[in-house]
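Consortium newsletter contribution from the modelling node. Members have asked for a concrete example of what our holo predictions look like. Here is one, prepared for the MRU complex that several groups have been discussing at recent meetings.
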Amino acid sequence: MKIFEWRDGAIRILDQTRLPDDEKVIVCDDLDKICEAIQSLRIRGAPALGVTAAYAVLMGSASIKHSSRTEFLQELDLVASRIKATRPTAVNLFWAVDQMLAAARGVHGDVDSIRKSIAQTADTIKSDNASRHKALSQLGAELIPEGSGVIHHCNTGALATIDYGSALGVLHAAHQAGKNIHVYVNETRPLLQGGRLTTWELNRWDVPHTLITDSAAGHLMQSGEIGAVVVGADRIAANGDTANKIGTYTNAVLASYHNIPFYVAAPLTTVDFDIKDGTEICIEERTPSEVLGFGHNRWAPDSVKVRNPAFDLTPESIITGIITEAGIAESPYLNSLRELHESARKIPSNV
Ligand code: MRU
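And here is the predicted structure:
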């Protein structure tokens, strides 16, 4: 079953809000539908949002009727702004939309040639995304200690990246390489990406795993059963500060206290070199209803005050390494991330 497919001018996605019970593919054939799907997390995870955003630009461009280059580009800007307004934290979404706009502006011919160029760019972003995740999964697998328990937060598998996975890709690759590992899956309140999605993927991949409540992670680290913590990222600042699913910071502090290596696995498209540290990252705040209950179950009084930050910030000082497709970045990240970025740019690709 395909997690994401671009076919006949429409984006088809496996609706992640229905997993694990219902494996339903939905068809988004206009901008409203795909923006709704992103906002309600039917498709989610930073790299998956990047690929989706690229094709959303392409889909939005199909309804632009102008045949003049200038007017076409003006309308395309409006499409881009609409997509960028869906979710603020994952930089991959912004990166992909900007790649599409740059591809469009780079064509000085007629509108048909612009259309061709952006279609090619979306395809390249998608195939490039697959190679980045394959490479980082294999590199990261070497860091996972043999015979260890590994804590994973949120969902970072193929569902979140479309191909392979980032942190979960690393754990899958370690398992495939014959390492005897056991994944402890944080359930990841409030939307249970760990409990619903990560368990679904690890089960399909046959990787040994156990589901735990978010609050059990510290206890397991204290008991000596955990050899590493591996998470993904939504945006990494130039200095290595990392925004990821709410609760990541708590796991990083606990890992640091217990001297357990804490790794972030992410493609270089998740690094935002335009911001110097994490204080500049916008943390999405979501609706209180996600905290008041789940689905049709409500367990808190409707009148209660709620805060629902969807992400948090882990300072670079407590990150052991950042696993990318071009190598493992180590502190000081300001230098190592930049060097990896420069070395990866030497690999031919048009994005
Ligand atoms: O709100 P979500 O489910 O989109 O959040 C996803 C995460 O926080 C992931 O850990 C992150 O995007 C990395 S996915 C490889």
